[in-house]
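S.,

Sequence below, as promised.
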Amino acid sequence: MSSKNLSSIEILSQRYAAAFYELSTKTRCTDNVLKDLIIIKNNLNNSDDFNLLLRSPLISSEDKFLVIKKLLQKIKSHSLTINFMKVVNKNKRFTFLSNIISRFEEINSEKRGEIVAEVISSEELKDSQKKDIEKKLHNSIGNSILLKYKIDEKIIGGLIIKIGSKMIDTSLNTKINKLKLAMKGAL
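The prediction came back faster than expected:
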């Protein structure tokens, strides 16, 4: 994907998320809406079929909306969430839904004074490891931290922690690459 497309996706996601967040704060239902969006995001992350359905250009926006609407009715979501999905449907933006939800979560965290940190590991971390990471980051930063965990098998081992524009990279993949560069320099 080109940088032009990436920035337009980011801009579009920002606009939708910011408008939805502002509306949810005015109607005092941000926590309810956030809960609904997290359920949708979890479904996107855990179901390849659901993800494919929302991203497929072969499926009409109206059909995508019907599936989302059924999910939202099943979880007894807030009416504002359903209305927002109607707007997403009308503007045919379901392919950006994951980005919009992520940006909504980021805006919510920023407004609450939380710092968002992304922790990337080669495999699922144990709860005790997650608590240890959270404690160490809280002690070094001092603010409320919202941790997002991702798995990337390419890093082989270790961790990559991203906090804003800062990155701590203790992955084995990076160490191996540094060793390769050092060996090339020695030859």
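Helices lie at 3-26, 30-46, 48-55, 61-74, 79-90, 97-111, 127-141, 172-186.

Coffee later?
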